[in-house]
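Please predict the structure of the following assembly.
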Amino acid sequence: MKTLALSKVYQLLEPGPVVLLTTARAGRANVMTMSWHMMVEFEPPLVACVVSNANHSFSALRATGECVIAIPARTLAPKVVKVGNASGRDIDKFAVFGMTAVPAERVAAPLVGECFANLECKVADAGIVRKYNLFVLEVLKAWIDPAQKNPKTIHHRGYGTFAVDGKMLKLKSKMR
Amino acid sequence: MKTLALSKVYQLLEPGPVVLLTTARAGRANVMTMSWHMMVEFEPPLVACVVSNANHSFSALRATGECVIAIPARTLAPKVVKVGNASGRDIDKFAVFGMTAVPAERVAAPLVGECFANLECKVADAGIVRKYNLFVLEVLKAWIDPAQKNPKTIHHRGYGTFAVDGKMLKLKSKMR
């Protein structure tokens, strides 16, 4: 995997793809599926996300203050759904679903080897967690897999229905 | 336009489409383009969004506590970009870009007649505005246009590049 400039991180998350969120606690890694996230700042990249306190990952994220946001391409969709339908309370999802936990550089949470992008994050602000389960994360280090060319992401519409990226549209714009 | 059940609102925003945000202040409507938003709660639907305080809409949103989130289909993309590249300080964007401001039911901000979905919102929590320009909105009323069948949404990847919805993928899932 290759380093991605932090200034480009928003280009990965702003389109709203389904992502995986990994944590590690007491040497045990876990991974969940997440769609409730948004950019908050370009650089350093701040990302807000909602992690339900019913999720096993919630307590690990709160306790360790670290996670990885991994972005899966369309081909991983079946595994993404399996990850979303299981709990780390019951099983080791990396092992059961055949996903590769790759050591990260800045955090204990692992990268997901099969994902085309991985963002190492620390919790920058936990002040809104109590009210909305909303974490503000800072992306410390970003990776992309150059072997995955033009990956198409998936966008959850509820109940296992996903819109897959189709055509790209390029319009003249002053917007970053 | 037809009423959409509030319990289904997340299905519109969770996929991460580019949206328009309208406001109205002192009888003058404005509209901006927005991609930094996410769901926070299913029902009543809470939506978080970041509106830069450099945007003309910011002060209207803060002062009135009301807005509409309108979701454009792919065919509106050229207008969406124009809206994003202009400021309501300088022009009446509805008039200049030929968009129809339709009176809403619960808020003073207008619906956008050309959009396939419109969500009337009030600011539910402005406590995080100072720190991150982050508003928590509650959706009070949701509309869809049944005449627009299977609208494809657009997802901004930066600098005027958008991924347009392609194929739909339906997987067996327990996830809402």
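Helices of chain B lie at 9-13, 56-64, 77-85, 93-96, 129-132. The first strand of chain B starts at residue 2 and ends at 4.
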